[in-house]
Write a structure and sequence with these properties.
globular, 262 residues, TIM Barrel, 10 strands, 8 helices, eight-stranded parallel β-barrel
């Protein structure tokens, strides 16, 4: 009698600090993520106390030491600044500097916590992003050994042969796709070779909702990530939701024990 097929292992789940408990001290949030049961976090590069320009070398070491002490991986940094800033000549330089600084911080945290952190920055570029801006972002990321996940949808077209290790790649945010009437699982499968970062989020077609409460086929999405060989933590995105602690706890449990979502 053939052995039963083994279930596909889901990538681990990280908690994003973007839009999470606004106003809370970042270090208190790190403690909270640990207490909720997470083993990875995605830091918000726009939050006071985590902005790269506010963290000197000593502060970065202290942050990395706190993550190591709590055995938390850094799944990357979120930099949700308005996409238009990358195409507005009056704001482009500042946006590029912010992205470059976030890449440098992500790379430094990865170096300070080897084997546990990912030097990834998630952001959203405008639909008509000037090619020189894209090249500048690629150069800044490559210079420090980081990668950028562009969560714009649809993703920018490939220029030439696809490079799975390119510094500027694709990010998948299911809520964004669902709001555009797209299938996140199909998108993950189609662009697996270009994906740098994935998120867990959901939408009812009008607004963001808790994972499993909207149109996301969570099981199908998880299978697409696993079969596509997409590495790294899946980032739980709770922007705009109420009762975030409870949702985070429930999502972590359901992701690890998928029965309720099957």
């Amino acid at each position: 009698m053939p052995a039963a097929a083994q279930p596909l292992l889901r990538p681990p789940l990280a908690l994003s600090f973007a839009g999470y408990a606004d106003g809370a001290d970042p270090r208190a949030l790190i403690d909270r993520a640990h207490d909720l049961g997470f083993r990875a976090v995605a830091l918000d590069a726009t939050r006071p106390g985590l902005r790269p320009r506010e963290l000197d070398r000593s502060a970065r070491r202290e942050l990395a030491a706190l993550l190591r002490r709590l055995e938390l991986r850094c799944a990357g940094l979120d930099l949700w600044i308005p996409p238009a800033h990358f195409s507005d000549p009056a704001r482009t330089d500042r946006a590029l500097d912010a992205a470059g600084a976030a890449c440098a911080l992500a790379a430094e945290l990865a170096a300070l916590a080897p084997g546990s952190a990912r030097a990834v920055v998630s952001l959203t570029l405008p639909e008509e992003c000037p090619p020189p801006v894209r090249r500048d972002l690629e150069d800044r990321a490559a210079r420090v050994g980081a990668r950028i996940a562009d969560h714009a949808w649809p993703p920018a077209a490939n220029e030439g042969a696809p490079d799975p290790n390119a510094p500027l790649g694709v990010g998948i945010d299911p809520a964004v796709l669902l709001l555009r009437k797209q299938d996140p699982a199909a998108a993950a499968s189609q662009h697996a070779h270009r994906i740098v970062s994935t998120r867990l989020s959901d939408s009812d077609g009008a607004v963001r909702v808790a994972p499993g409460k909207g149109g996301l086929d969570v099981a199908g999405y998880a299978v697409a990530l696993a079969t596509g060989g997409i590495g790294g933590d899946v980032v739980l995105d709770l922007r705009g939701l109420r009762g975030q602690d409870e949702i985070a706890r429930d999502a972590l449990d359901a992701w690890a024990n998928p029965g309720p979502w099957e």
